[in-house]
Design brief:
By secondary structure, the chain is α+β, with helices and mostly antiparallel strands. It has helices spanning 9-28, 39-44, 90-93, 95-99, and strands at 48-53, 62-68, 71-77. Strand 2 (62-68) and strand 3 (71-77) form a beta hairpin.
């Protein structure tokens, strides 16, 4: 915002780009969150969240995997993990897609 209290065209475009990126990420990756995880989130959804380490690299970030029925459907970072503190890389967020991918070797 400039000194007159109005948003400039640049501010509006930056805000629109940021919100578009958040919306795209949220629609592509089920279970992704952009805030702190709370116990109430698991009660709102019919998912059971289980802790697990990420296996895509050697860091061992903590993940929360959402299970619906007998299938993993969502992934998000574990805020209690000292390694990643609730954040997760792109590979970790796509762990479910890698697990159930149609081109996966079985």
């Amino acid at each position: 915002m400039d000194t007159s209290g109005c948003y400039s065209r640049r501010d509006v475009l930056k805000l629109a780009a940021k919100h578009s990126a958040f919306l795209a990420a949220a629609s592509l990756v089920p279970g992704i969150t952009f805030g702190t995880w709370q116990e109430s989130e698991s009660a709102d959804m019919s998912l059971k969240w289980h802790k697990t380490p990420c296996r895509f690299c050697g860091v061992g970030c903590g993940l929360l995997v959402g299970i619906a029925g007998k299938k993993a459907v969502a992934v998000k970072g574990d805020p209690a993990s000292p390694v990643n503190k609730g954040l997760c890389c792109v590979k970790g967020y796509h762990a479910v897609q890698a697990l159930y991918g149609s081109d996966r070797l079985t």
